[in-house]
Write a structure and sequence with these properties.
The structure holds two protein chains of two kinds. Chain A has helices spanning 7-23, 26-33, 41-50, 68-81, 87-100, 104-111, 221-256, 268-294, 299-328, 338-349, 356-369, and strands at 117-120, 136-140, 143-154, 161-167, 178-184, 190-196, 202-217, 258-259, 262-263. By secondary structure, chain A is α+β, with helices and mostly antiparallel strands. In chain A, the strands form two sheets. In chain A, strands 1, 2, 3, 4, 5, 6 and 7 form a seven-stranded mixed β-sheet that branches. In chain A, strand 8 (258-259) and strand 9 form a beta hairpin. Chain B has helices spanning 7-23, 26-33, 40-53, 71-83, 91-104, 107-119, 237-247, 255-271, 283-307, 317-341, 371-377, 388-400; strands at residues 124-127, 143-149, 152-161, 172-178, 189-195, 201-207, 213-226, 230-231, 273-274, 277-278. Chain B has a four-stranded mixed β-sheet. Chain B has twelve helices and ten strands. By secondary structure, chain B is an alpha+beta fold. Chain B folds into three domains: 7-89, no CATH class; 124-235, Butyryl-CoA Dehydrogenase, subunit A, domain 2, CATH 2.40.110; 252-400, Butyryl-CoA Dehydrogenase, subunit A, domain 3 (Up-down Bundle). In chain B, a hairpin with a 2-residue loop joins strand 2 (143-149) and strand 3 (152-161). Chain B is globular. Classes of the chains: A alpha+beta, B alpha+beta. Chain A binds chain B through residues 1-6, 69, 251, 254-255, 263, 265-266, 268, 271-272, 274-276, 278-279, 282-287, 289-290, 292-293, 305, 308, 311-312, 360-361, 363-364, 367-368, and chain B through 1-6, 9, 72, 281, 286-287, 290-291, 293-295, 297-302, 304-305, 308-309, 318-319, 321-322, 325-326, 389, 391-393, 395-397, 399-402.
Chain lengths: 370, 402
């Protein structure tokens, strides 16, 4: 039992942190986030060069990481710098492809930095339910065609390939009968309505009208669940990175802002709120550690740890974002202060891959099933 | 990062389990499991069994009769003992005074008192709080004036201590006393060992809200204490008190106790029915139960992170305070849910049902008898050892460095 990262991971984390500190300062981040693209090909190239993409995948597909703590150290740094680049979609779609096997050529290009992936799974009606898939897949000759709607696909316009879930058999709500298909960007019949997101970067709705697609697997449920688990580990650590920044900035403000003739950190009401937030951040970090450690465990342990982490991150993230704004007072409400953007991203993490209510229910259900 | 225990640690866990199975008296475990009162003799019996195995003093060095365990081993023992329904080790001699003597005591004091703590020859209690010195401990007033006369070098102690846990059993008390009123308040305090059988010592019970005699008031009237019972330097007793706070690293969070209490809560929530179904399946109850379970899972890791933070170095004050706050909040939430789980059967108050063999006197389910009083008793957790509000100030002060 120990809580230090390996030397390799520590080095990558430090390298990435240094790079982002120098090349992804908040001004540059805003410029990228508010640009028409909503991401930066130059940054993507630089990040792949640093090994950030390769660290998300294991050696079997040409990467050099892929464990929970590889994902953790990377997304923690991405959170600290509020990075909007399309890493989450690439991680989740790439993980499903790697687990399915047979897509080594695509993954090799991903790891080389020449290909970006998105996962188009959620649908307008699905509200975090992984099995509520209504998009249909129909065989046609030796291939398949897809028809349906996917919602809120992060950074879909950045993607060269989109991994799409679609129902082959059964009804919405069944885990069985969901296939995974790869669709090349720009395939006829596939259209994207892209839009800016409240926390920066872009998302999009994906409409498929008899789109030609390559079958990856006819039994996608367990891969979708594992991809979501990796995504939740990533989001949890992105949130931890963000919360550490919010804590640092809020402490600095409590030290320096004076009212009634004293630094406001001298006031007990604020001290107690800050102490509670700091305590909760440590509990959230522990939840992230538990989930990262369980990512390669058997399903029952993995999914319970993952839902516990996402519940904790949702609950604590909301508390920390709201308290950071409140303790800053009026200045915390401004667009100009970086803090407000960190707070927005932290809150929106709760809206990706299931909020605290969803994961509390799921944690209970997994316990009853055990 | 590796959350798993090593093969050696797992072997140790197996050894602890074997020991608990073979040596923990079933009679005592059953009393703990069913929330019965433990007598002085029960505590002494378990204390002697642990001492015979050399497993009593987890945080002492082996050369002085301690276990020499790593923090991981201490943690494993804490959890396994709690899950096996062992009584907690009464902490005053073993966990509180022992480390202070080891750090600050003279060779003569160590040679005399440490073996007596292990053997159980002396039952120790703690004399810190006073009626006017609770969270603000440094305001304590109990005086010790040094006198060197025909009867030798000694202190004359006058004043009052309060909230003295199990002081009614004690042979000895370690006290913080005021030896100077000059300078900073903390710099006039000394650490003194006082024989409870000395003339001028009297003990008065305080009955708590659960009806139990757990704590006491202690009065000192011209009590003579040999100067040789001063631990460390005169006026430096505050160092001893602070040392304990930052070096008692295991068990601050009470993870083992909470794990055992949660397991019991789940059993009760599955046995209780609501609308014909187990209460554990009621959505509101299940949500609160799951929330505290997740908080405890997180706390296990937070606790281990603090424990693993270096065997020798002191725990940063803010982390110790976080463990204390959230550890006690979790424990209190579990006792609160257990009380709620009983529904109307939380109300009967049959004191005799808490004595050994008294289960048949309980009204309603047999497990109901101790639940409400246990809930009320555990309100103390967020008050003692520095209230949770004081702990919050410790956290912010350490983080802000204002």
């Amino acid at each position: 039992m120990h809580f230090q990262h390996s030397d390799d991971r520590r080095m990558l984390s430090e390298t990435l942190g240094r790079y982002l500190g120098q090349r992804y300062p908040i001004e540059a981040r805003h410029q990228i986030a508010e640009s028409q693209r909503g991401w930066s090909p130059e940054q993507w190239a630089a990040l792949s060069e640093l090994g950030v993409v390769g660290a998300l995948f294991d050696e079997r597909v040409g990467g050099f990481g892929g464990a929970g703590f590889d994902i953790a150290i990377i997304f923690e740094q991405l959170g600290r710098a509020l990075v909007v680049e399309p890493l989450l979609g690439t991680l989740m779609a790439g993980r499903a492809l790697a687990l399915a096997g047979g897509s080594d050529d695509v993954l090799a290009r991903v790891i080389a930095g020449n290909c970006i992936l998105a996962l188009a799974h959620e649908e307008p009606q699905s509200r975090y339910d992984l099995w509520d898939v209504q998009c249909r897949a129909v065989p046609e000759g030796a291939g398949w065609r897809l028809r349906g709607s996917k919602a809120l696909v992060c950074q879909i316009e950045a993607a060269d390939h989109i991994l799409v879930s679609a129902r082959i058999t059964g009804e919405a709500g069944d885990a069985a009968g969901i296939g995974l298909f790869l669709v090349a960007a720009g395939t006829p019949g596939a259209s994207v309505r892209s839009y800016p997101l409240v926390d920066g970067g872009r998302g999009g709705d994906f409409t498929l009208e008899d789109v030609k697609a390559t079958l990856i697997t006819e039994n996608g449920a367990s891969l979708i669940e594992e991809a979501a688990a990796a995504g939740i580990v990533a989001l949890s650590w992105e949130a931890v990175g963000i919360m550490d920044v919010l804590k640092r900035d809020t402490l600095e403000y409590l030290r320096t802002r004076k009212q009634f003739g004293a630094p406001i950190g001298k006031f007990q009401a604020l001290q107690h709120r800050m102490a509670t937030a700091a305590l909760e951040i440590e509990q959230a970090r522990s939840a992230g550690i538990n989930a990262a450690a369980a990512l390669d465990s058997a399903r029952a342990e993995r999914e319970r740890s993952v839902s516990a982490a996402k519940f904790t991150i949702g609950r604590v993230g909301t508390l920390v974002a709201e308290e950071a704004i409140q303790l800053h007072g009026g200045i915390g409400m401004t667009w100009e202060l970086p803090l407000s953007h960190y707070a927005k991203r932290l809150i929106m993490i709760g809206h990706q891959l299931g909020d605290e209510d969803h994961h509390l229910e799921r944690f209970i259900a997994l316990g009853e099933a055990a | 990062m590796d959350l798993s225990f090593s093969a050696e640690e797992e072997a140790f866990r197996a050894e602890v389990r074997r020991f608990l199975r073979d040596r923990l008296p079933a009679r005592i475990a059953e009393k703990v499991r069913t929330g019965k009162r433990l007598t002085k003799a029960d505590h002494e019996e378990w204390h002697a069994i642990l001492n015979a195995r050399g497993w009593l003093a987890a945080n002492w060095p082996r050369a002085l009769g301690g276990t020499g365990w790593t923090v991981a081993q201490s943690y494993i023992f804490e959890v396994e003992a709690a899950l096996a329904h062992a009584p907690r080790i009464v902490p005053f001699g073993v966990s509180m005074l022992g480390p202070v003597l080891i750090k600050y005591g003279s060779e003569a004091q160590k040679a005399h008192w440490l073996p007596r703590i292990l053997s159980g020859a002396d039952w120790w209690c703690q004399g810190y709080s006073e009626p006017g010195a609770g969270s603000d401990l440094a305001s304590l007033k109990c005086t010790a004036i040094r006198v060197n006369d025909a009867n030798g070098d000694h202190y004359i102690v006058n004043g009052q201590k309060t909230w003295t846990t199990l002081g009614q059993y004690a042979d000895m008390i370690f006290c913080l006393v005021r030896t100077s009123t000059e300078g900073k308040r903390q710099e006039g305090i000394s650490f003194l060992l006082i024989d409870m059988r000395s003339p001028g010592v009297s003990v008065r019970p305080i009955i708590l809200l659960d009806g139990e005699h757990e704590v006491n008031e202690i009065f000192f009237t011209d009590v003579r204490v040999p100067a040789g019972n001063l631990v460390g330097e005169e006026n430096r007793g505050w160092d001893c008190a602070k040392y304990l706070l930052s070096h008692e690293r295991t068990n601050i969070a009470g993870v083992g106790a909470s794990m055992a209490a949660l397991a019991r809560l789940k059993q009760i929530a599955n046995a209780q029915r609501k609308g014909g179904k187990p209460l554990a399946q009621d959505p509101h109850f299940a949500a609160r139960l799951a929330k505290v379970e997740i908080d405890l899972e997180n706390m296990k890791t937070t606790n281990l992170r603090v424990l693993a933070g270096g065997e020798e170095s002191p725990v940063p004050l803010e982390l110790g305070a976080m463990l204390k706050i959230r550890g006690t909040e979790i424990r209190q939430e579990i006792t609160s849910l257990t009380r709620r789980a009983l529904g109307p059967y939380a109300q009967p108050f049959i004191s005799e049902a808490l004595d050994e063999g008294g289960s048949h006197l309980a009204v309603g389910p047999a497990y109901a008898a101790p639940v409400a009083t246990d809930y009320f008793n555990n309100r103390k957790l967020s008050i003692y050892g520095g209230s949770n509000e004081v702990q919050r100030e410790i956290i912010t002060k350490a983080l802000l460095e204002l």
